[in-house]
Amino acid sequence: MIQKYLLGLVAGLFFLGGCQKKEVLPVAENIPSPQQVMLGFKQRLYANQMDSVFKKCNFNGSVAVFQDSSLVFKKNQGFEDFKNKTIIGSQTVFAIGSVSKQFTAAMVLQLYDEGKLKLDDHISDYLPSFKENSSYRDITVSQLLGHTSGISDSGSGLLFKSGSNFSYSNKGYCFLGELAQKVSGKSYDEMAHELFRKAGMSHSFTSDRFNGVHFAKAYLGTAKHWEEVPDMPARLSHDKISVSAGGILSTASDLHKWNQALYGGKILKPQTLGMMLKKGMIRNHEILGKCGYGYGIMMNGSSPESFFHTGYVKGSPSLLVYYPRTRTSLIVLSNIADESLGKNGFFKPHNTFRHIADVLETAAGQMSEPSRNVAETN
Fold this sequence. Notes:
By secondary structure, this protein is an alpha+beta fold. Helices cover 39% and strands 18% of the residues.
């Protein structure tokens, strides 16, 4: 079915490209621009494909696709509160897990932009705990940002010599939160909310500052047989998770605004953003396979180019993707997970949504080239 719709998209775009020749045409009113027609195609394609996943998976959550400031697709389904049958809406706030890490990375890189630290500085220059642990003394800011420090989430030693390999570390991002507070003189909550304001995110919070309205409570199991994850979202502030590694709460629309601000150059200087998005090491992601890792951001190794991160705290799987070529965001948020299926099982809808977006954004990116070429040569 998707191939059939893509053929229609291709034919339509080539038709539009041909119409861009400098010919005398009759005057007509309300003729849509090629960009508007392209957006219309995308909206219909996404609606058809995404709706089918909602139905097959009985997906409980929120999915949205935006291109620049235009809404391509958005759908909410299910409950934010299963017991009271409160339905998910546009202001429903989800726990986004490790998607939070890019906010922490951005805070640290802002301090770099302000000249308050260097990426090759030793963390031990700032945090006493690193000075006291001989294994940690030579770990740099850059190594914590890129998960190459060797810090183990379950012990106090190193898994390997710092800088020599990749090992995803929540504890490393907990330390980055401490570093940002030490250097800035502000709390993590203050820095996070400054970022939210800068990006125009009016429905985003740290778990410590959440006001309790429209929260998507987290659940384990299925829609018929579920159990609520206790102490949410307060448990995200505990040391085992930490706010800087996985404790931010947000909505689909706000995460789109974050993508616009971050990749649009409103948060970091261009050169610094480039460092954040530069592949440092390869990560063997248990759900998405091999991908590059920069600073708090993953990137794929094939077409289409995209930057993304998954997140999971008990009962709340999430995915945030940005396609730079088409300036398109995909946001997938949910508040229930059947852990008996394993991560590949309960992340299956998220991965399917991403696969659909990969196909459609590849086509959209490729089909926009002939139109531009025709315009340039006529």
